[in-house]
Each structure stands twice: as C-alpha cells, then as structure tokens.
Specification:
By secondary structure, the chain is an alpha+beta fold. Helices cover 52% and strands 19% of the residues. It contains seven helices and eleven strands. Strands 6-5-4-8-7 form a five-stranded antiparallel β-sheet, sandwiched between helices. It has a three-stranded antiparallel β-sheet with strand order 1-2-3. A hairpin with a 5-residue loop joins strand 9 and strand 10.
Length: 302
C-alpha cells in the first residue's frame, strides 16, 4: 500500500478550520438566541396589546430570518478568506464588501420570504410581504449592520490567530543612509511577530513553503508561519539553487528532501527530512531532479 501524504501546513490549516467552526457555532448561538428572544417578546407584546396573532405565525416570522442568515454565513466566511482586509488592502477590497452586503440582503429577503410563504401555506394561511422596495430598505438597514459586524469579527479573530501563531514578513528594506543588513534580493532572515514579540527566522531554516490563499505558509522546525505573499513572489526572492519549485503550491528547500519517489503519469512524492511527504507534479519533477543532480537551474541560466 502506498503511503498517504502527510498533510502539510497542518498547524495553520487546522487552527484556521477550528476557528471557522467555532465562529460558525458562535453565530449559530447568537442567531438562535435572537430568534428565541424575538419569539418570546413578540408573543408577550401580542398578548399585552390584544393582537390576534397565532404563535406559529410568530415562530415562522422570527425564525426564518436568522435561519437564512445562518445559511449564508459559510459564504461570508469564504469571502473573508478570499478578500482579507489589511492596512494595505482594505481600500481595494472594501467595495467588494459593500456590494456583498447588498447581495447578502437580497438573498436574505428572498430566502426569508420563501420560507414564510411555505410555512404559512402549510399552516393554511397566506403571507403577504408587502411592498418589496420598502421591505428591502427596511431589511438592508438591519442587514448591513449584521453583515459588517460579522466581517469585523471574522477579521479580528483571524488577526489574533495570526498573532498567536506567528506571522512572518520580509525584513524591511533599509533606509538609504543606513548600511544594508543583508541583500534585499536574497533575504537571509524573516521577521516573525508573535504575541507582540519579534523573532528572526533564518531563511536556511525554512524547510518548505506552501501557498495558502493570500498567504504562503513557511514551515520552520515543525511550525508554520504565514507570510503575506504569493508563492511566485517568494520564489523570485530566494536562491533557485537552494529552494526549488516542486508543485504549483509548494516550494521546497532541496537540502530537506531525502528522496524522490516516482509515481505514475510522471508525478512524484518528495520525502522530507522531518518525515512529511509532499507532492511533486510532473511539470516540476525534471527541473527539481536536475537541480538535485547539480545542474544549473533554469532561472539562473535565464
């Protein structure tokens, strides 16, 4: 039986998935609590003011809205991963979230009204949403607050998660008047900020790098540190005789590769020094083997 690939980037990926599930459960509790509270207060108000309002009407009206919001939540979580808001990106991505808030409201109203129409019909009654334009304005004034509360909360949790795990960055280019600490084109160290403290990580200690959305996870002695960069941009900064592309999502330090296991269709597995197994695609396999054999890398020849 062929050995299964050890999941790379396990620390960060597992922590991110855990945070996503915890956020979903938290908002499920918040939406559920709000629904129960609204049902109870609406029932009390109906009795207090002698409004002939059936309890099942109240339940359908008050439960349908948070239920649809909860169904939309996973898509908002994905959007926050795809378009993270940072100091250097928020101006570019904020319009996406504004448009997203309108889309959220439209889908929320559509789903909510359909559930109410179905619920009322099953109960032998009819539901009239009224003027749709006024309904949109009324609901959007509420939805836009909920939408951005969730967005801010998601990014705050991610910010703290990165700080607790440790977020890497390239050392800043030195001032013109100061003597450069190292060549900017070939950084020898990365700066890792973790819980308010700064650590220097030597480039030579990076075992591999894995693309992860808008980040690249740097594996260093069994831990992963997210670097806000693309894998291609990072590859261009590192020595091509030391760090070799093995896959569209992986850049490996050649000295950390203990063996290359050929597979069918020209692909391969890379067995790393720490026991992890990484994929090697057919596109990069021969180039990697050439560098391992001591041939001049293509990037250097160019």
């Amino acid at each position: 039986m062929e050995p299964a690939l050890t999941p790379p980037g396990h620390d960060i990926d597992t922590a991110r998935r855990r945070r996503r599930w915890l956020m979903f459960l938290l908002w499920a509790v918040i939406f559920g609590t709000a629904a129960i509270s609204n049902v109870l207060t609406s029932r009390i108000d109906a009795d207090r003011y002698h409004v002939p309002y059936a309890t099942w009407h109240i339940v359908i009206n008050e439960v349908s809205s948070p239920f649809v919001s909860l169904l939309l939540l996973p898509f908002l979580l994905i959007a926050c991963d795809r378009w993270p808001l940072h100091a250097d990106t928020w101006r570019r991505y904020l319009p996406y979230y504004i448009v997203g808030s309108v889309l959220w409201c439209v889908l929320h109203i559509t789903g909510m009204d359909l559930l109410r129409l179905l619920g009322y019909r099953l109960g032998g009654d009819s539901y009239d949403p009224g003027n749709l334009g006024l309904q949109f304005i009324y609901e959007y004034l509420k939805d836009v607050r909920t939408f951005f509360y969730i967005v801010v909360f998601i990014h705050a949790v991610e910010w703290f998660g990165r700080r607790s795990t440790g977020e890497a960055s390239l050392l800043a280019e030195p001032d013109d008047e100061a003597a450069p600490v190292e060549p900017v084109d070939r950084p020898e160290r990365f700066l890792v900020r973790k819980l308010g403290r700064d650590f220097l990580v030597a480039t030579a200690d990076i075992e591999w790098a894995q693309a992860a959305g808008n980040y690249v996870n740097l594996r260093v002695r069994g831990r992963d540190y997210p670097l806000r960069s693309t894998l291609a941009a990072l590859e261009a900064r590192l020595d091509p005789a030391v760090f070799v592309r093995a896959h569209r999502s992986y850049l490996v330090q050649l000295a950390q590769v203990t063996s290359i296991e050929p597979l069918d269709a020209g692909e391969a597995r890379l067995h790393m020094a720490d026991g992890t197994v990484l994929p090697c695609s057919r596109r990069y396999r021969e180039a990697l083997r050439a560098v391992a054999a001591g041939a001049e890398p293509a990037a250097a020849r160019a």
